[in-house]
């Protein structure tokens, strides 16, 4: 496998993992104070949205940087 592809797959793995950790932490934290899972999900949507969009942007910026570098 191409080293560039390995680096991109690793970045995808870590960005997705980071997003899942953020999702779980935010949901658990909000649920502790509201006592309601649905309220925690609704309240956490803006935070997840920002984290998700940031992860996607970071991936494509990283992909552009990796693809510019010579093999």
Task: Please explain how this structure is put together.
- With 71 residues, this protein is an all-alpha fold.
- It has helices at 3-34, 37-68.
- The relative contact order is 0.17.
- Helix 1 (3-34) packs antiparallel against helix 2 (37-68).
- The chain is built from 2 helices and no strands.
Derived structural class: mainly alpha
Q: What is the number of strand segments?
A: 0
- Rg over CA atoms: 16 Å
Low-confidence regions: none
The mean pLDDT is: 92
Oligomeric state of the chains present here? single chain
How many DSSP H or I helices?
Answer: 2
Q: How would you sum up the global shape?
A: elongated
Run of helices and strands: HH
Strand content: under 5%
CA(first)-CA(last) distance: 13 Å
Helix content: over 70%
Largest sheet: none
Short synopsis of the structure:
It contains two helices and no strands. It has helices spanning about 5-35, 35-70.
Task: Output the keywords.
2 helices, 90% helix, single chain, 71 residues, mainly alpha, elongated
Secondary structure elements and pairings:
Blueprint (H helix, E strand, L loop, with lengths): L2 H32 L2 H32 L3
């Amino acid at each position: 496998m191409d080293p560039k592809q390995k680096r991109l797959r690793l970045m995808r793995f870590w960005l997705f993992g980071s997003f899942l950790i953020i999702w779980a932490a935010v949901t658990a934290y909000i649920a502790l104070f509201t006592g309601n899972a649905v309220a925690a999900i609704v309240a956490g949507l803006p935070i997840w949205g920002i984290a998700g969009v940031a992860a996607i942007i970071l991936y494509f910026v990283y992909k552009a940087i990796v693809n510019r570098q010579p093999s």
